[in-house]
Specification:
The chain has 436 residues and is α/β, with parallel strands linked by helices. It has three domains: 39-160, Nitrogenase molybdenum iron protein domain (Rossmann fold, 3-Layer(aba) Sandwich), CATH 3.40.50.1980; 187-287, Nitrogenase molybdenum iron protein domain (Rossmann fold, 3-Layer(aba) Sandwich), CATH 3.40.50.1980; 302-435, 3-Layer(aba) Sandwich (Rossmann fold). 44% of the residues lie in helices and 17% in strands. The strands form three sheets. The protein has an eight-stranded mixed sheet, sandwiched between helices. Strands 5-4-6-7 form a four-stranded parallel sheet, with helices on both faces. Strands 9-8-10-11 form a four-stranded parallel sheet, sandwiched between helices. The chain is globular. 47% of the residues are buried.
Length: 436
């Protein structure tokens, strides 16, 4: 909780039947109807990242359809995820769910012996019937160890947003990371799933800066988990990793406070935090990052004319909203009207919050009706929102940007800064073309 809660009347344009809570710190906190994907969605990027892992969702046919639709997997493909479907017999207690799960896991690992880590992923249905997947993971881990490690996390959409699926998955991995002692050399850990091309770019930059002992969580191969201990310094690549941060800190690691690596300035600050922690000479650091930073600034400048002065609203979706609003305001001259986020971690976002323009309205949580009322009243030039809200707003003459595209696209680092700016410029360009 951030400060004390007081009730205020809704702003102009808000429905008078419900009133949002406003925290003393000036953040609107809303608890109502939500429009977000569930945490199972994170499997779509995690299964591509961890090449020797497999994700077995214990859920309903709806869970299976969501994953197939979101991943766009063709019927003859063999991805690294599947759904163990809970049938009516399971719900009625006519079958032993644990025995059924053991049978499915046996069959899966017989067919796919290359799997080194198997995640049992909880869902809304498995949690509703109180299926203890934690105990199942412990039992199966004993059976299949050491060839296959069995872990468990929840991807349920009950009271969560979809990026928390990655947070829960990485939190489950942290206890499996090798222990590093206080006498071991200091190492840097980059935390948060990144596209391979972005990870490679950062790896080259760290090497040129002079930081060689760098690991990543998640890794491309779960068999190669980096060590963690008192001399581990970690940088968050994603702002939604609250639980993972706590798990790493309990293992003795220290978080490096920095802006998130979006845009030229955010990426520079993020890299500088690592350089300072490892005693890199500032002049050497500046020489290394200058070319990439300049390329990023030139790429961003090409989109500035279309975006500068435009007003933008973020509806809560992915928890990327604060750093993206900072990037758009400081590097492209956009005006954030409202920045909504599903959950606001002030500690992880302190640097981002400090750079948002004065007067930016902040909101935590979601009450769809109230937030849509504010969007209609504000009429921003661009609204970033979920798929389910975009078409209705477009029908009312408001330009929108799908928030989910910002999660699935490579947007971190110097080389992607221009592409990130283009994601916001494209809807406005489309609007202008349609008007003509």
């Amino acid at each position: 909780m951030i400060g004390e809660i007081t009730l205020t009347a809704p702003e102009a344009g808000c429905a008078p039947s419900r009133q949002p809570e406003v925290l003393r710190a000036g953040v609107i906190r809303e608890r109502g109807q939500r429009e977000v994907f569930c945490g199972l969605t994170g499997i779509i990027w995690l299964h591509r990242k961890m090449q020797d892992a497999f994700f077995l969702v214990v859920g309903s046919r709806t869970c299976a359809h969501l994953l197939q639709s979101a991943a766009g997997v063709m019927i003859f493909a063999e991805p690294r995820f599947a759904t163990a479907i809970i049938e009516e017999r399971d719900l009625a207690g006519m079958a032993d769910c644990q025995d059924e799960l053991d049978r499915i896991v046996d069959r899966l690992l017989t067919r796919r012996p290359e799997i080194r880590t198997l995640f049992l992923v909880g869902s809304c249905p498995s949690e509703v019937i109180k299926l203890d997947l934690g105990k199942a993971a412990q039992r199966l881990d004993v059976k299949f160890s050491p060839s296959t490690r069995i872990l468990n996390y929840s991807g349920s959409g009950i009271e969560t947003t979809f990026t928390e699926g990655e947070d829960a998955c990485l939190t489950a991995i942290v206890p499996e990371m090798p222990a590093a002692s206080a006498s071991d050399a200091a190492n840097l850990l980059v935390v948060g799933a990144l596209p391979d091309i972005v990870e490679d770019q950062f790896g080259r930059l760290f090497a040129e800066i002079g930081i060689s002992n760098v690991g990543y969580l998640p890794t491309r191969r779960m068999a190669d988990l980096p060590p963690v201990g008192p001399n581990t310094r970690f940088l968050l690549a994603q702002p939604f990793l609250t639980e993972t941060t706590g798990a790493l800190q309990r293992r003795g690691a220290t978080r490096l406070d920095a802006l998130f690596p979006f845009g030229a300035e955010g990426t520079t600050d993020w890299l500088r935090a690592a350089a300072d922690a490892f005693g890199v000479d500032p002049m050497h650091f500046n020489r290394v990052v200058a070319p990439g930073r300049e390329r990023a600034k030139r790429a961003i400048a090409h989109r500035r004319e279309r975006l500068e002065g435009k007003r933008i609203t973020f509806l809560p979706d992915s928890q990327l909203e604060l750093p993206l609003a900072r990037f758009l305001a400081t590097e492209l001259g956009m005006i954030p009207v409202e920045v909504g986020t599903p959950y606001l971690n002030r500690e992880l976002n302190a640097r981002e919050l400090a750079l948002l323009p004065q007067g930016t309205r902040l909101s935590e949580g979601q009450d769809v009706d109230l937030q849509l009322d504010r969007v209609r009243f504000d009429r921003p030039d661009l609204t970033v929102c979920g798929l389910g809200l975009a078409n209705p707003l477009e029908a009312e003459g408001l330009s929108t940007k799908w928030a989910i595209e910002l999660v699935f696209s490579p947007i971190h680092g110097f080389e992607q800064a221009g592409d990130l700016a283009e994601l916001f410029a494209r809807p406005l360009r489309r609007r202008d073309v349609l008007r003509v």
